[in-house]
């Protein structure tokens, strides 16, 4: 990580880690400005974790996140104030450095001529030509004129975004499609459960985003700041404007680590881990291997979360490892669930309860993690049992696997596309926006009542592709989504309870029961999870090959 100097007093950089702070202090930096909101990426440390490391180096930190919509005057003023008040030189960072460079440029608009600002940014490797209009026009960007337009714009290059792009091209080659996403890496997140169990290596779950963008699709490597659906425009960080005829919205969820007090600064330390972050899943396995006795706590926050079964998957695979090592009798396994049931579809609960008993795990329902003290190895939970006053309990731990609270990203929640709860408001069958008829959504951020899993996106992508192409042809929606989602519950190494269900908890098995009964632990289901689904993901789903994902037609009235 090489800081890029905009002035003698300010440099900008991409995302840093706590491990970078000693080197930055050695380079002379005395303060940090964080412009990236927490929880944007699965592999991102929160600002509290960075602040703790900065304090240890005698450095100051100011958290000035750009949380959604265009970069506002208040954001620029806060950045300018931080720059004036903090001891210099200062390092400002965001995901790529672009946001920080933009904040600086806007803060200098009244002090320096436009060519000077653009040249300084160019010298640091940042092209701010897309912000030139805002700098010249007092911070206001007219969305009436887009910088560039495409027939179809897709927000998000995760499982949903790349899959729907590939499915669209398989139906209508030559479509003018752009995908907006700033991330260099694309992750197969369902594999992180197995990384945390020592089955996969983390690098097996990652590819470069560039290698996965379908041929012929334009990749706009930037982050979205907001939407203007009345102008058919997407506003990017740096205030570039991308126009569209039709829009597909499918970014991932925000992992809100900082909602749990004390968590960010202890992640990856003191026995605190999570399979929900790429860099932490290996630590889960390290902890499991090292433990030969003591208390292991596994948490699950209120819904919605990505893959509702993932928190207990970590518990089962850890319990299995301790069982195989002959130390299970010395382990105290505690499952702390903010909800009131083990799993939301009752057909799968009997098989899961057999493993709860096998690992002698204690189920604690209505327990929501609210704060943690890593060095002291203590966690506090708010208990909200029905018809009882809320109370707080303290739990000591030797190891704790934390599932973070999860929400739609800020730029979704504050947008005109969102419902009152902050999710993109779609028809649950056609996945078309209820208000804006040229917008569709799939994946984690839309408000259909389905499980948020990669398997759900695999089935949703063809539905959106069918209906969007039908719209291009002037036809009504032709395909419908039945709420399908899949959660392979890894109950032990070598066996899985394969939960497949749709809206209302209706069972939707992919295979005949004689071949694979998903309600019972199965080696065939494990083979599916370990050997078959990863290549289906990389070589099928992301390339528009819709294996086991044929959309249901909308019945004619």
Describe the model.
With 557 residues, the protein is an alpha/beta fold. The chain has 3 domains: 4-136, Protein-Tyrosine Phosphatase, Chain A; 148-253 and 408-553, FAD/NAD(P)-binding domain, CATH 3.50.50.60; 257-405, FAD/NAD(P)-binding domain (3-Layer(bba) Sandwich). Helices cover 26% and strands 23% of the residues. A hairpin with a 2-residue loop joins β1 and β2 (10-13). The chain is globular. It starts with a strand and ends with a strand. The relative contact order is 0.11. The model has no long low-confidence stretch (mean pLDDT 93). InterPro entries: BLH_phosphatase-like, FAD/NAD-bd_sf, FAD/NAD-binding_dom, Prot-tyrosine_phosphatase-like, Rhodanese-like_dom, Sulphide_quinone_reductase. Pfam families: BLH_phosphatase, Pyr_redox_2. Its cofactor is FAD.
Features:
557 residues; alpha/beta; Protein-Tyrosine Phosphatase, Chain A; FAD/NAD(P)-binding domain; seven-stranded mixed beta sheet; quinone binding; Rhodanese-like_dom; quinone; hydrolase activity
């Amino acid at each position: 990580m090489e800081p890029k100097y905009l002035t003698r007093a300010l440099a900008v950089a991409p995302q840093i880690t706590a491990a970078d702070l000693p080197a930055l202090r050695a380079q002379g930096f005395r303060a940090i400005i964080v412009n990236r909101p927490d929880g944007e990426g699965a592999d991102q440390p929160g600002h509290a974790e960075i602040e703790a490391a900065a304090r240890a180096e005698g450095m100051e930190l100011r958290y000035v996140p750009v949380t959604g919509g265009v970069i506002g005057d208040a954001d620029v003023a806060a950045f300018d104030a931080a720059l004036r008040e903090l001891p210099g030189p200062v390092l400002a960072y965001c995901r790529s450095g672009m946001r920080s460079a933009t904040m600086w440029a806007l803060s200098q608009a009244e002090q320096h001529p436009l060519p000077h600002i653009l040249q300084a940014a160019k010298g640091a490797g940042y092209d701010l030509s897309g912000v030139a209009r805002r700098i010249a026009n007092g911070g206001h960007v007219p969305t009436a004129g887009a910088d560039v337009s495409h027939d179809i714009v897709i927000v998000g290059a995760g499982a949903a975004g790349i899959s729907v792009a590939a499915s669209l091209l398989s139906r209508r080659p030559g479509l003018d499609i752009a995908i907006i996403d700033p991330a260099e890496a694309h992750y197969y997140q369902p594999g992180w459960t197995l990384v945390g169990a020592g089955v996969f290596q983390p690098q097996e779950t990652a590819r470069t985003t560039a290698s996965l963008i379908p041929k012929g699709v334009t990749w706009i490597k930037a982050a979205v700041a907001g939407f203007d659906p009345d102008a058919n425009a997407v506003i990017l960080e740096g205030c570039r404007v991308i126009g569209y005829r039709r829009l597909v919205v499918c970014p991932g969820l925000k992992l809100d680590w900082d909602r749990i007090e004390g968590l960010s600064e202890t992640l990856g330390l003191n026995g605190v881990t999570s399979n929900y972050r790429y860099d932490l899943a290996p630590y889960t396995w390290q902890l499991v291997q090292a433990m030969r006795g003591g208390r292991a706590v596994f948490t699950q926050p209120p819904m919605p979360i990505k893959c509702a079964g993932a928190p207990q998957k970590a518990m089962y695979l850890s319990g299995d490892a301790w069982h195989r090592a002959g130390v299970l009798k010395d382990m105290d396994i505690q499952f702390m669930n903010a909800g009131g049931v083990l799993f939301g579809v009752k057909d799968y609960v009997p098989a899961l309860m057999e493993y709860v008993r096998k690992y002698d795990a204690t189920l604690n329902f209505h327990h929501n993690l609210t704060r943690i003290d890593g060095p002291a190895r203590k966690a506090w939970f708010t208990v909200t049992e029905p018809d009882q006053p809320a109370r707080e309990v303290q739990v000591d731990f030797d190891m704790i696997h934390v599932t973070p609270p999860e929400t739609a990203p800020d730029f979704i929640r504050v947008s005109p596309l969102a419902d009152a709860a902050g999710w993109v408001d779609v028809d649950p069958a056609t996945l078309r926006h209820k208000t804006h008829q040229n917008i569709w959504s799939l994946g984690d951020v839309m408000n259909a009542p389905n499980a948020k899993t990669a398997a759900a996106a695999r089935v949703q992508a063809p539905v959106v592709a069918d209906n969007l192409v039908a719209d291009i042809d002037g036809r009504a929606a032709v395909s419908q989504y039945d709420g399908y989602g899949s959660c392979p519950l890894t109950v032990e190494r070598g066996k899985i309870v394969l939960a497949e269900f749709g809206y209302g908890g209706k069972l939707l098995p992919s295979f005949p029961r004689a071949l694979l009964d998903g309600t019972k632990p199965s080696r065939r289901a494990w083979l599916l999870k370990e050997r078959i689904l990863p290549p289906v993901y990389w070589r099928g789903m992301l390339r528009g090959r819709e294996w086991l994902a044929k959309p249901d037609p909308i019945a004619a009235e």
